[in-house]
């Protein structure tokens, strides 16, 4: 059972307090609460918010007095989703590519290069309008924290402006000049790596927290990826990595070696890769939207979870391989096709995403955390997978303020 902690009533100098009561089931992600599961599920629950933080969680009947009261109406409440992998600063789309792929026709319009050309041609205002459009879309579906990357500019000016725009909307900004080798350097990849680790890094580092690289055949090999991530670390950026998506490769081992916060995709793994992840701080971030949109092999989440790997679940929202901003959709895919239980999928999309960003102030609903939460038009979080495609997120609060 939960152990309520009393909080002082507000004074003229403190923030007003609000209790949300009549919650059918509350996911706290604190295993010491409620049913003592990893979700820390409390039935007939309440949450007290003071300012932008959670001040108390427990059973409704034990809730302390507050200034304001909100009735959840018997709905479930969960932590806001933490989308720890997206590519949202871009222009255009790749409808023709997707249509051809889904119709079984060959398509050779250039993939990422198509988006690079459109992004370079777009104005700052156009890129920001696009970004805010997808952020609003994600918020309506319960996402309260997101990470996003550059990677569709591939010049010093275009990469730095992408990060400058992104940094106005999130603290979780990732420099990814190493998405692919720029078309301008197709004949001299080494010169492009020198640019990514030199002038481009210097221009981008002030706007970013993270550095990422696509370590894959056709993108950057292990030695190139190590040089790029090591240079980023020297500039004060922490590494993440696109690893083992399309084939077996060195990405996961490199992630663990460099203490990367996350290794993302993790589809093609050896036993040594799984063991390395299980014995490290590196989170395996799974992105089922990409497999759905490319008809590729699904990552084996069950294998990772059974080995003790920390798993995050994210959208990979991008115009080419996963054009979805819906974490609930990804939860349904993970349960249906990746071997996750509904509880595991929700944990991975909230607390797991927070772990992939090395954050302790989000992804859970316990005292001290940001008051980021979503009301579901359902009595249980299980409905996210049980009713796929149904817009169940009815209300979203971010930092103590109702935004949807």
Strand content: 15-25%
Report the strand count.
Answer: 18
Quaternary state reads single chain
C-alpha-based Rg, rounded:
21 Å
Describe the 3D structure:
The chain is α/β, with parallel strands linked by helices. The chain has 15 helices and 18 strands. It has helices spanning 95-102, 112-121, 124-140, 156-166, 189-197, 199-204, 222-234, 251-257, 271-278, 288-294, 301-306, 327-337, 342-349, 351-356, 383-386, and strands at residues 17-26, 42-50, 53-59, 68-71, 76-79, 81-83, 143-146, 148-149, 173-178, 210-215, 238-239, 241-243, 262-265, 283-286, 311-313, 373-376, 393-398, 401-402. The strands form three sheets. Strands 1, 2, 3, 4, 5, 16, 17 and 18 form an eight-stranded mixed β-sheet that branches. Strands 8, 9, 10, 11, 12, 13, 14 and 15 form an eight-stranded parallel β-sheet that branches. Strands 6-7 form a two-stranded parallel sheet. α4 links the parallel β8 and β9 (173-178).
Helices and strands in order, then pairings?
Elements: E1 17-26, E2 42-50, E3 53-59, E4 68-71, E5 76-79, E6 81-83, H1 95-102, H2 112-121, H3 124-140, E7 143-146, E8 148-149, H4 156-166, E9 173-178, H5 189-197, H6 199-204, E10 210-215, H7 222-234, E11 238-239, E12 241-243, H8 251-257, E13 262-265, H9 271-278, E14 283-286, H10 288-294, H11 301-306, E15 311-313, H12 327-337, H13 342-349, H14 351-356, E16 373-376, H15 383-386, E17 393-398, E18 401-402
Helix pairs in contact: 3-4, 5-7, 12-13
Question: Which properties best describe this structure?
Answer:
eight-stranded parallel sheet; disordered N terminus; about 20% strand; about 400 residues
